[in-house]
Design a protein that fits this description.
The chain is α/β, with parallel strands linked by helices. It is about 30% helix and about 25% strand. Strand 19, helix 16 and strand 20 form a beta-alpha-beta unit.
Length: about 650
């Protein structure tokens, strides 16, 4: 992790507003009141083996029981529920059929173009079995990695459940990533097959997917990929390579609707999901079967206080961890109804979200602060036109939410009577770690409040010593938890170094830290303040500044690049790139566009710089390190403060100011 030593976590103003849960919510809630929560917390802390072991026995189906709850003999490499065998696809499907819930809606899907598809648990089970059988027919075996590069269609969830049913780990690559980024992930994961679609609809346009897969596989660059399964969604003309490419509709319908779920070892890989870090290429975060299943299941149940009649909707994409844990696995493991929506608010339908809530009587809504800020900007007239009275709980995820956006969300969308859950977590944590619980927590706008039972979160200094109330520090987790990532795919050293060796306690103990700064107030509320490493969060999408820099530098005209985030009212952060050009290359508007397009091609549209600034030189220390702190100040129009004495050449700064 490259964390500049001069980064200081600034404290923010105290927030005094506080919203206790209503008596009605508390009475109906699963966890009734703070004393009950506190009891769970104390039990989990004093008897972690019993707490986690009993939860795993009660909440999951086991083909074979585990004989040890946690093996932490080789930290940071954890093994949970050792010796047990389970299957997350079974937990998400079969057991609900056996409990008489086969006719309950599992997935309600609405496409951007308006069509609606519904799957009961029975129907979803059949579709998943057919797909699992098809994967077997394509030669996929237990342990083979299957990549998904898909739009938000039911087949994405079906494919994930089909993979897990036969023990083939999946690697979902967000459909907004470029062919280049897809190729990196296919190669790194040694994918055996890719499941994709001709394309998808986004903001009234067609986004091609299959051509990007062709591109990624061209020149035999991913020799492990043998088969490409293609869902027809947009009806575009695409090329199908004989022997390699198969249409979904040619292969799946004729398969048997029975495919027994394979008993899977607790610690067998369930999926790999790539995410950005401070250094180098994105890393493949590895999650395993039982621990992840338990954590996605429990957190979903607690945080959304789920009831059988709920219609639950999370607006994320399945390409991100939020989609994995809270569109697919968490809700289905609990036997809930999960809504999948392909669209986003767009000029032809700016009220799309409110329309979906009204139409499907959504009772729980989970979205990102960036969306809330965008709606806030256009005013309450739009949501006020819709009937949102079906909502009983609303949540946010992905970035810090500013108190005003929180208040707007509570008042305008939640009608002042829905608990708001601001959930803090990461790809690495598998599920939510810090969040209010409805019926339990008095919320404060902008605070994710308290850690969930079993999670020992703290705010510490670089030696792991807890800082005082209201003093900023590093947000860490002190004890292992079932949903924790197990390693970085193919690079266990990187796992140890990036997450467990940054904080260095004197006693040599290991503490998990993944890049966020936080503060805890005098009442113990956590206030997450955002990344303190070289990761930026653009509209809730996580990007490494190094990744964007490498993309820029890979262009022949660019000599050096430094990328920083600048605060942005809507997106949270915007990307600003400082670029020096090769000798003899002149800056121009054309070059600017070329470089923006180059980043799009290398990573994807989400990494597109908002601003590129050409400069003769970058501010560097005498040892040659780029001083990003100065660039961050410049990019956000702030006066450069703090120590500049280590600058090699102060005149660089003056030039940049001008
Ligand atoms: C940020 C998304 C403040 C944080 C689930 C974290 C948040 C990164 C919150 C992980 C929140 C997520 N408040 N910040 N409620 N939720 N973050 O891996 O910086 O895509 O480290 O997982 O998002 O992003 P990731």
């Amino acid at each position: 992790m490259t964390l500049e030593s001069d980064i200081k976590i600034e404290s923010v103003l105290q927030e005094d507003r506080i919203f206790p849960p209503s008596t009605e919510v508390t009475e109906k809630a699963r966890i009734k009141g703070f004393h009950e929560y506190k009891k769970m917390v104390d039990y989990a802390n004093s008897n972690p083996d019993d707490f986690w072991g009993n939860s795993a026995k009660e909440e999951l189906h086991w083909f074979e029981p585990f004989n040890k709850v946690l093996d932490w003999s080789d930290p940071p490499f954890a093994k949970w529920f050792v010796g047990g065998k389970t299957n997350i696809s079974y937990n998400c499907l079969d057991r609900h059929l056996q409990n008489g819930n086969g006719d309950k809606q599992a997935i309600i899907w609405e496409g951007e173009t308006g069509e609606i598809r519904r799957f009961t648990y029975k129907e979803l089970h059949s579709e998943v079995c057919k797909t699992a059988n098809a994967l077997k027919e394509l030669g996929i075996k237990k342990g083979d990695l299957v990549a998904l590069y898909m739009p938000m269609v039911p087949e994405a969830a079906i494919s994930m459940l089909a993979c897990s049913r036969i023990g083939a780990p999946h690697s979902v690559v967000f459909g907004g990533f470029s062919a280049e980024a897809l190729r990196d992930r296919l190669v790194d994961g040694e994918a055996k097959a890719v499941i994709t679609a001709d394309g998808g609809f986004r903001k009234d346009k067609i986004i091609s997917l299959k051509p990007a897969v062709d591109d990624a596989l061209s020149n035999n660059s991913c020799p492990t990929v043998q088969k490409v399964l293609v869902v027809r969604r947009t009806n575009e003309n695409i090329e199908m390579q004989p022997g390699r490419d198969i249409w979904w509709h040619d292969l799946i319908p004729s398969q048997s609707t029975e495919c027994p779920a394979l008993p899977i070892d607790s610690e067998d890989r369930l999926f790999v999901l790539y995410t950005s870090g401070s250094t180098g290429k994105p890393k493949g975060v590895v999650h395993t079967t039982a621990g992840y299943n338990l954590w996605a299941h429990l957190t979903f149940k607690w945080i959304f206080d789920i009831r059988s009649e709920d219609i639950y909707w999370c607006t994320a994409d399945v390409g991100w961890i939020t989609g994995h844990s809270y569109i697919v696995y968490g809700p289905l493991s609990n036997g809930s109804t999960t809504l999948m929506y392909e669209g986003v608010p767009r000029p032809s339908n700016p009220g799309a979200f409110w329309d979906v809530i009204q139409k499907h009587s959504v009772s729980i809504f989970y979205t990102a602060p960036t969306a809330i800020r965008a709606f806030m900007k256009t005013g309450r007239e739009l949501p006020d036109k819709y009937d949102l009275s079906s909502l009983r709980l609303i949540g946010t995820v992905g970035e810090p939410i500013n108190p005003e956006a929180w208040m707007w969300y509570r008042d305008v969308i939640g009608g002042k009577n829905c608990p708001v859950v601001d959930t803090w977590w990461q790809t690495e944590t598998g599920g939510v770690m810090i969040s209010p619980l409805p019926g339990v927590t008095s919320t404060k706008p902008g605070s994710a409040t308290f850690p969930l039972p079993g999670i020992q979160a703290d705010v510490v200094d670089s030696e792991g010593i807890s800082v005082r109330d209201n003093e900023g520090g590093y947000l860490v987790i002190r004890k292992p938890w079932p949903g924790m990532m197990r390693t970085v795919h193919g690079d266990s050293n990187r796992f140890r170094e990036s997450y467990w060796e940054f904080i260095k306690p004197k006693d040599g103990s290991l503490i998990y830290f993944a890049g966020d700064g936080a503060r805890r107030d005098s009442q113990g509320y956590f206030w997450v303040m955002g990344r303190v490493d070289d990761v930026i969060n653009v509209s809730g999408h996580r990007l490494g500044t190094m990744e964007i820099e490498s993309a820029l530098v890979s262009h022949q005209s660019v000599s050096e690049a430094a990328v920083v985030g600048r605060p942005d009212d809507l997106k949270g952060e915007a990307i600003v790139a400082f670029v020096t050009l090769e000798n003899g290359v002149e800056s121009s508007d054309l070059l600017l566009t070329t470089l923006v397009n180059h980043v799009k091609a290398e990573i994807g549209v989400i990494a597109k710089p908002d601003k590129i600034i050409f400069t003769d030189a970058l501010p560097k220390t005498r040892s040659g390190k780029i001083m990003r702190r100065l660039l961050r100040s410049l990019a956000s129009g702030k006066e450069v403060s703090g120590d500049t004495s280590t600058l090699e050449d102060v005149s660089v700064l003056d030039k940049l100011r001008n």
